[in-house]
Design a protein that fits this description.
alpha+beta, Alpha-Beta Plaits, four-stranded antiparallel β-sheet, binds iron/sulfur cluster, 3Fe-4S, transport, electron transport, globular, electron transfer activity, about 80 residues
Amino acid sequence: MGDRWQVEVDRSICIGSAQCVHRAQGAFRLDSGMQSHPVEPETDANEKVLEAAENCPVEAIMITLLGSGEPVFPPEE
Ligand code: SF4
């Protein structure tokens, strides 16, 4: 069975660049205040979501393993 992820966006640092919305289509949406939200906060492990997190200009997207809370992105130092 594949991993399940918990996806969160820190909206205190999100600058609404919309890169995540374009990079992982269907996985993020911007609200009326141009803040990103994961469409499904709990999701199957997904390369596009990981790419979105890696490419967010302010590293506002955090991914952890559902259940254990182990960090997927940003990776543990
Ligand atoms: S890429 Fe990052 S800064 Fe841009 S909208 Fe998505 S979460 Fe916000």
